[in-house]
Automatic annotation (TrEMBL):
Source taxonomy: Bacteria, Bacillati, Bacillota, Bacilli, Lactobacillales
Domain annotation HTH lysR-type: ranges: 1-58
Superkingdom as given in the UniProt entry: Bacteria
Name of this chain's protein: Fhu operon transcription regulator
Family of this protein: Belongs to the LysR transcriptional regulatory family.
GO molecular function, one term: DNA binding
Length: 292
């Protein structure tokens, strides 16, 4: 069974005569009759019965016609969607984003991408790294911006340069700050920690024989910044989150174990459309610009 046979079958059912169907399809009658006979043999049923006025569908033929129409319609829809996807016309890129990538979206380079593909839309779904990757595996999103560490099984990954964790000091804490801050110095201050890294922070302090003063724990890098700004403590967040912010002092933490990377990830088996490929290129270019 193939799409050509289904198309022939539907046309004959609509015309009620093989001669009229052959004329409409621009083929000779014998090959058309042969294709329908082959289809009936494969299905093991008779699809048409002859009458004095031509041919009509049997009960089995009526049932099969419903499915044949669905198959042909879905095939045409898929072809139409794929052509549109190739051109980016009316397409939507569903992007998973984390709070610590907020400075990267939107950007002028992604705006240029939208101009290159008229009608291209963006749907942004925000969550933490684990939530975003779960949505990616469930095919709720197409591509995601995440942060290490994470489980990359089954994913294509493009990593960006590592960055240090930063200590964000509110104004009243900023006296006598150095170019970097050590773990030994951090334990002197109340800390606002981002839950994503809490376990990593605690283990590092424990191995160093230090006891931190955890004042606040939250789930969002932006929330950590707000609490630091209000004087509750020194926020520990990835340094890129605050690279354009002047409300507080940003001091890199001298701890290699706390370095982290942003990454762009997508399923290995996902259809890589031209506009999705261009999104990856545009985002990567934006990352290079931010880094420089």
């Amino acid at each position: 069974m193939n799409l050509k046979q289904l198309s022939f079958f539907i046309t004959i059912a609509e015309e009620g005569q093989i001669t009229a169907a052959a004329k409409r399809l621009h083929i000779a009658q014998p090959p058309l009759s042969y294709q329908i006979k082959q289809l009936e043999l494969e299905l093991g049923v008779e699809l048409f019965k002859r009458t004095s006025r031509g041919i009509k569908l049997t009960e089995e033929g009526k049932l099969f016609r419903k499915y044949a129409l669905q198959i042909v319609d879905l095939t045409q829809l898929a072809q139409s969607k794929l052509k549109a996807a190739k051109k980016g016309v009316g397409a939507t890129i569903v992007v998973g984003s984390i709070s610590s990538s907020v400075k990267l979206l939107p950007s002028q380079k992604l705006r240029n991408l939208q101009l290159n593909y008229p009608g291209l839309k963006f749907e942004i779904i925000e969550d933490n790294t684990y939530g975003v990757i779960e949505k990616l595996r469930k095919k709720m999103i197409e591509i995601a911006i995440v942060r290490t560490p994470f489980n990359g099984t089954g994913l294509q990954m493009q990593y960006f340069p590592s960055e240090p964790m930063a200590a964000i000091f509110p104004r009243e804490f900023q006296a006598h700050l150095k170019a970097q801050i050590t773990l030994q110095e951090l334990v002197k201050w109340p800390l606002v920690t981002y839950r994503r890294f809490s376990s990593q922070f605690e283990q590092t302090f424990l191995r160093a024989g230090l006891t931190p003063q955890i004042a606040v724990t939250c789930d969002d890098a932006r929330t950590a910044l707000r609490w630091a700004d209000c004087g509750y403590g020194v926020a520990l967040i990835p340094s890129s989150v605050t690279h354009t912010d002047t409300l507080h002092e940003v001091v890199p933490v001298a701890c290699h174990a706390w370095e982290t990377q942003l990454a762009l990830v997508w399923p290995k088996e996902h259809l890589m459309t031209p506009f999705l490929r261009d999104f990856i290129t545009a985002f990567s270019s934006e990352m290079c610009t931010k880094k420089n």
